[in-house]
Amino acid sequence: MSILSYLIPISLVLGGAGLLFFIYTVRTNQYDDPEGDARRILNGDYDDHPKR
Amino acid sequence: MSAMMGSAASACPACLAAPAAEDLAARALPKEARIALSVPGVHCGACISTLEQALAAHPGVHSARVNLTLKRALIEADPSISPEDLIPVAASVGYEAFELDAGTLSATTQDKAGRDLLMRLAVAGFASMNVMLLSVSVWSGAEGATRDMFHWISAAITLPTIAFSGQPFFVNALRAWRSKRLNMDVPIVMAIVLALATSLWETALSGHHAYFDATLTLTFFLLAGRYLDYRTRAIARSAAQELAALEVPRATRLEEGVERTLPVSELRVGDLVLVRPGGRMPVDGEIVQGTSEIDRSLLTGETRPIFAAPGVTVSAGEVNLTGPLVLRAAAVGQDTSLHRMADLVAIAESGRSRYTSLADAAAKLYAPGVHILAALAFVRWYIYAQDARIALNIAAAVLIITCPCALALAVPAVTTAASGRLFKRGLLIKDATALERLAQADTVVFDKTGTLTAGTPDVGPLDHLGTRDLTIARALADASAHPLSQALRTALDARGIAPATLDDLREVPGFGAEGMWQGRRVRLGRAQWVGASASASTAAWLAIGSEPALEITFTDRLRPGAAEAVAALKASGHDVIMMSGDSTGAVEALAQRLGIAQWMAEALPGDKAARITQLQSEGRRVLMVGDGLNDTAALASAHVSVSPASALDAARVASDIVLLGTDLAPLAEAIRVGRMATKRIKQNFRIATLYNIIAVPLAVAGLCSPLIAALAMSTSSITVSLNALRLK
Q1: Is residue B418 a contact partner of residue B676, using CB atoms and an 8 Å limit?
Q2: B38 CA to chain A: closest CA distance, Å?
Q3: How confident is the model over B378-387, as pLDDT tens digits?
Q4: Closest CB to B122 among A4, A19, A36
Q5: Which of the four CATH numbers 1.10.1060.10, 2.70.150.10, 1.10.132.100, 3.30.70.1130 does domain B250-335 have?
Q6: In chain B, N or C: fewer CB atoms in 10 Å?
Q7: Interface confidence (ipTM) of the complex
């Protein structure tokens, strides 16, 4: 059962990391236009000259 | 939104050559103009590229970004660029665009509140996943010290999470408690608090059952419902409010012959106000100088322009068509007829607020029922087992099982799916209960001018005019910006008529246009002015020298989709009625064209509202479709109301649904979707009840374990959401 003392902190850290990443995506407005972003990825306009 | 604008500003606009862009960035630019357009027609990836490229290629535009979810384009441009410059650009690639007020757009805090909810939802989601992991090990047989440790870790995660994520419910429940009312949030908070308290107690006594996972999943599902609800309303609200107001915010005052522009609110009675052609009257008053024609269709529904000369009284909201006018203000601000009309709306609206939504009706039944059930379970077990701990455990289980998770998702999941679908067709649902009310409508009342008709006239038969007459008419029509002249010009263009050569071509404001043709005076304009007698229909008269004047008649042009909408509504069993302030002849002609049997002409604003109230007192549910100021009272007193985006601000505010495009056809679809949505909501309530019927007896009997609670809750919530998704 001593394995638990590793696994529990690891699961908490991983969960926390996921949460922090999610908070980052919210802060950078990545949910403002979900529909548009889904289409934009198929758009070839900036393939050769990436938009900065 | 703000950061999206920010990123667009920092990005190098792809349209500009790189050196030019650097050059621009190096010089500290004067303030940029931020323009927001509502573009209801965008729907695909290709639309985004086409529209962005077209807008970005317009000189002076720095960058353009289309938001497909909100159907909006945000443009950064030189300060000299105005929305009026960009609307034709969008039109040139096939997209209708409407101006949005960028000021209110950046000022709205809607995004902050939405982000706040999303954050709480995410924290609850992540915490519930972790706690569920620990709970699964307990359910699969963790014993003794291990189980206690898992429970304590769960508690350590759950308590701070609930403190953060549960705030919206705590705040609402407290507010309801203070005002001695019961809403959905009271049983929710009771369940959360009681579950946490018993779980902590159990954990401290190293008991078997703890409901930490159930508390968190509960919070998660409830927040998901809240967020969906919020998102639907936020999209609708922002778009509806930000369609730029048509009411004039500024006016031009003459101060000893000098023009000064100032806010309308600063005008006083007796001021001299200048109104240019195309402008809207900011005040009620009397014309003291200038002649012109005025269009009062938005106030009264009359399509025929009215002659205006010194001595004629005008009302705020009317449009000046041809020549500059100077008015002496007789009533300003709150006293104008425009505002008195708004008062009518307020009275009518207070009548409608009595509508109880399906969700409220359910909550009213539900909340007391749940509390009584939990209390009874507690009392029964306390008497039976003489143990407060067992009794409390069972009461908590009952509260958790019955907690309105699925109920909280039942309505918002459906309205989100339905309004998403209608938004794609160009309909904006402003009010949360509009779909339910739309589904109940059995009578549809249309306004004529600006709603069934496009507000621009079509030219009638021209066969009685020779080619010579037509070329002269074309030349005269070119001289004026009057709507009738413009319609005539378009019609003659379509026939390939070139203008004749005229000398001394000039527009006489309020009368028409005149010129000299081969030494003879030619005139196109009002009947009296060219020496003819006026007829009943909307008409312009052409006079060539001393020959008898020729009449050119005009008919209303139907709004696209109007005929389809009326036909579809009649086919689905609705009574269709037309009410208009216009003359009997014009209304009757249109009614025959559209096959509308019941109509009412020369109706005053009060008549329309009264007729609707009368219909409703006969037990009918009226859907009102209108755009004018004369319709606002009717819109507000109807059971549910729709206005087109081109409507006056007041009309849009008074209505529940705004049509973003010019097409009326989606109206029939809206009613169909509304009916379907109501059906789904009721179905969802039944599903949620079914789960309760199965799980509640188990809980009351004391057979409910945390595993059963978690299963019942998750399955009911997921079933309800999936059922809602079938609408898409």
Answers
A1: yes
A2: 14
A3: 888 888 888 8
A4: A19
A5: 2.70.150.10
A6: C
A7: 0.82
